[in-house]
Amino acid sequence: MPKGVKGNNHNPNGRPKGSLSPQTTVGYKTIADIRAYCKQWTFDAVKTTVEIMNDVGATPQARLVAAQMLLDRGWGKSAQIIEGTINHYDRMSDDELRLLVKGTVVATGPDSGRIELEGVAEELSE
């Protein structure tokens, strides 16, 4: 059958049973196996990084990267400050916004996004 025809399957038997899933493997090893293999070289990798950092013949960039790697792994990466504003008006209903614009109700306090509407229903009808 030509390619693209309904019902045409170019891999009719699919992946053989027992073969490793491509999402969890690289070659014939699972990702967990590769991680475990890499972890056994941790001390050698740290030692090499220290050697690069202390090598006066290495480029300043290589020494700086090595030092940063050691600091990040030993102390953790520095916290990033995220600034933003909380807009309580997004959580307010159309009726609440109308009252707020009209000046009938003032949104204040920690929960200013919610306004009690009891007793002001007649204001909404105007």
Verbal overview:
By secondary structure, the protein is mainly alpha-helical. Helices cover 40% and strands 3% of the residues. It contains five helices and two strands, in the order ββααααα. The chain has helices at residues 31-39, 42-54, 60-75, 94-102, 121-124; strands spanning 25-26, 29-30. The protein has a two-stranded antiparallel sheet. Helix 2 packs across helix 3 (60-75). The mean pLDDT is 75.
Briefly summarize what is shown.
The chain has 126 residues and is mainly alpha-helical. It contains 5 helices and 2 strands; from the N terminus they run ββααααα.
Task: Record the SSE blueprint.
Layout: E1 25-26, E2 29-30, H1 31-39, H2 42-54, H3 60-75, H4 94-102, H5 121-124
Antiparallel strand pairs: 1-2
Helix pairs in contact: 2-3
The main sheet orders its strands as: 1-2
Helical proportion, percent range: 40-55%
Helix count? 5
The computed structural class is mainly alpha
Task: Work out the number of β strands.
Answer: 2
Mean pLDDT: 75
